[in-house]
Amino acid sequence: MNEPIRRVPVLWLALLATPVAAANNASVLILGDMSRSLGITKTTASWLVTVFALSLAIATPLIATLLRRRGTRTALWTSAAFVTVGTAIVAVSPWLSLTLAGRAGQAAGGAGMMAIAMNLAGTARRMGVISAGSGILGAVGPLLGERLTDAVSWRAALSILIVTLLPVPAVSRYTTKSPPATEGRFDARGAVLLALLSSGIVLLPSNPLPALAVAAVTAALLALHIRRRPEGYIPATALRSRLFRSSVLIAVTLSVLYFTLLFGTPQLITDRAGWSTGSVAVGQLIAMIAGSVLTLAFAAVSARLGQTKVRALLLTVGLLAAAAAVFAHSAVLLFVAIGLAVFSATSANATQSMAAASAVPDRQRPTGIGLFQLAYLMGGALGPALATTLILS
Question: Does the structure show a pLDDT above 50 at 2?
Answer without folding.
Answer: no
